[in-house]
What we know:
Layout: E1 2-11, E2 17-20, H1 22-32, E3 37-42, E4 48-53, H2 57-70, H3 96-105, E5 108-114, E6 117-118, E7 125-130, E8 136-145
Antiparallel strand pairs: 1-8, 2-7, 3-5, 3-8, 4-7, 5-6
Amino acid sequence: MKNIVKEITVESTTQIEFIDITSEVVTAIESSGIRDGSVLVYAPHTTMSISINHAESMLMQDFMRMLYRIVPVDDQYSHDLFELRRDHKSDGRSNGHSHCKALLLGTSETIPIVKGKMILTELQSIFAVDFDGARERNIFIQTTGK
């Protein structure tokens, strides 16, 4: 049984951005040499998620509208009251909404690998979803199997 971890970097350019990282995951699987097992894609950030869905531009707009409707930017978030939080060093971002959005989608996805290929349909893509962009982020791809 092999376990290979690869770190990639993505850079968002807008506040909320769906970044298609499917090709980077495919490359990590191919370079691992693993034919049967699974791949874990993980974002070690509290304002970022990993999600699998269809990479269609109008659907991306629907996702954005839904996320803004469920967790509006202009709502009041206790996290954003930095002046009351003396126990925590702030980076100056009012990003309570970003943490809440990330909670909805989660930080990782695990996909089975059979005969060297992920079990994804032609309509499925893997996205790193940044809710607190624009910034550079790291993503871990862990391929496990034989």
